[in-house]
Amino acid sequence: MMYYVRTGDVDMSINSTSHRQAAIEALRNSDKCLGVCVMVNDREISEVDPEGSVFFLTQSILDDCSMRLVS
Fold first, then answer.
1. What is the rounded distance in angstroms from the CA atom of residue 54 to the CA atom of residue 52?
2. Fewer CB within 10 A of the end CB, N or C, for the chain?
3. Residue 12: CB atoms within 10 Å
4. Which uninterrupted H or E stretch holds 3?
5. CA 30 – CA 67 distance, rounded (Å)
6. Looking only at Cα atoms, what is the longest distance across the chain?
7. How far is CA 60 from the centre of its chain?
8. 44, 3 in Cβ contact below 8 A?
9. Model pTM score
10. What is the phi/psi pair of residue 26, to 5°?
11. Could you report how far apart the first and last alpha carbons of the chain are, in Å?
12. What are the pLDDT tens digits along the chain (71 aa)?
């Protein structure tokens, strides 16, 4: 299924099996600045109406996948 992911400077669409997996893949494949939360939706994300979006803490995704931010 196609998911739309937004966090910090990351704004992309990803074909994935779940909201969480889409968030993981977006963080894994990004070299851009990440935000505090990752917003995932199966519809294109609108800044004024995030209805239907699932939110994850970025640090939680990184910790669960043994990833870390490098500066």
1. 7
2. C
3. 15
4. strand 2-7
5. 12
6. 33
7. 12
8. no
9. 0.84
10. -65, -45
11. 32
12. 999 999 999 999 999 999 999 999 999 888 889 999 999 999 988 776 678 899 999 999 998 887 665 55
Whether the Cβ atoms of residue 49 and residue 13 lie closer than 8 Å to each other: no
- Say if residue 30 is exposed, middle or buried (CB neighbours under 10 Å; 0-12, 13-18, 19+): middle
* Strands of the 10-15 sheet, one edge to the other: 10-15, 2-7, 37-41, 54-57
> Cβ distance 10 to 30 under 8 Å?
yes
Report residue 63 as tokens: 């910790």
Contact 39, 52 (CB under 8 A): no
Which position has the token pair 């990803």? 14
